[in-house]
Amino acid sequence: MPPPSRLHRVAVLVLDGAKPLDVGIPAQVFTTRASMPYEVRVCGATPGPVTGGDGLAYYVAHGLEALAWADIVFVPGYRFPDRDDPPQAVVDALVAAHDRGARLAAISTGAFALAATGLLDGRRATTHWHYTRALMARHPLVRVDENVLFVDEGSVLTSAGAASGIDLCLHIVRGDLGVAASNHAARRLVAAPYRSGGQAQYVPRSVPEPLGERFATTREWALHRLGEHLSLDTLARQAGVSPRTFSRRFVEETGYTPMQWVMRARIDLARELLERSERSVEQIAADVGLGTGANLRQHFQHILGTTPSEYRRTFTRGE
């Protein structure tokens, strides 16, 4: 593959509270070498020290002028993104870079900084699963997709938690330089060139945290009987209310209908069995009340974006 006529210029914008892995991923992936024709500048709101997260601090050589120089601007994740927007000067510099034609790429909670510019309004975006609801609440015009590893909207790109920053970077390399260069970079990083599924498979539980406790006893009762027939009538009878009342109030409490909640609870149990046992997919399907392996595969794919077999390989590899 012949080298491009010029280097691709990459700015990594380090904000207060920046997460070290999020900063390091684009800085390392795009480091200039013969196989990777990129030039990287790490910058901050101003040159000099930046307080980081997780016990680390940074010293950056460049200020916001690097955003006027760059073809791609990465915004690594940072702590407490749902509290305050970045400084107005940072927001303005991001907008100016975008207007000039630069691509803006966020890793993890860096999506909050891009959302603060308004450039994600009406567009799909993602962030770390722990912050998806906060992003929805703080920026309701953003179409948050909580089940993917990254989203490419052309001039603005976002990714989920830290490791998915690698997926996003490799995706960018693939688009800039082709599959061979992306695969070469993946080998150098000892990373998968492409990961199947989305971030939903990494969320600890598919069942949402309830907003209230009215039916806590009924939910606990159901969790111990997932292999049995659980209908709306059965759950309502156990709760001591009519099916109509149970369904309405259950949605208010959990955000899901009773049957959606049961399905997600069954998928969670299937995940545990796939991780911790050697039972076949057919056996697990029967154990969790889904009957057949085909039924389990269908709902597993719908909720987690991957297959039971791929999930098992991902979470048992190296044990």
Secondary-structure map with pairings?
Elements: E1 8-13, H1 20-29, E2 38-43, E3 48-51, E4 57-60, H2 65-69, E5 72-75, H3 88-100, E6 103-106, H4 110-116, E7 124-125, H5 132-138, E8 143-144, E9 150-152, E10 156-159, H6 164-177, H7 179-189, H8 216-223, H9 232-239, H10 243-254, H11 258-276, H12 281-287, H13 293-304, H14 308-316
Parallel strand pairs: 1-2, 1-5, 5-6, 6-10, 7-8
Antiparallel strand pairs: 3-4, 9-10
Helix pairs in contact: 1-6, 6-7, 9-10, 11-13, 11-14, 12-13
**SSE topology string:** EHEEEHEHEHEHEEEHHHHHHHHH
Task: Walk across the major sheet and give the strand order.
Answer: 2-1-5-6-10-9
- Calculate the mean pLDDT score and round it: 88
- Sequence stretches where pLDDT stays below 50 over 5 or more residues: 1-5
How does this model look, in words?
This protein has 319 residues and is α/β, with parallel strands linked by helices. 45% of the residues lie in helices and 12% in strands. A six-stranded mixed sheet has the order 2-1-5-6-10-9, sandwiched between helices. Helix 5 links the parallel strand 7 and strand 8 (143-144). Helix 1 runs parallel beside helix 6 (164-177) and helix 12 (281-287) crosses helix 13 (293-304). The chain is elongated and about 65 Å long.
What is the gist of this entry?
The chain is built from 14 helices and 10 strands. The chain has 319 residues and is α/β, with parallel strands linked by helices.
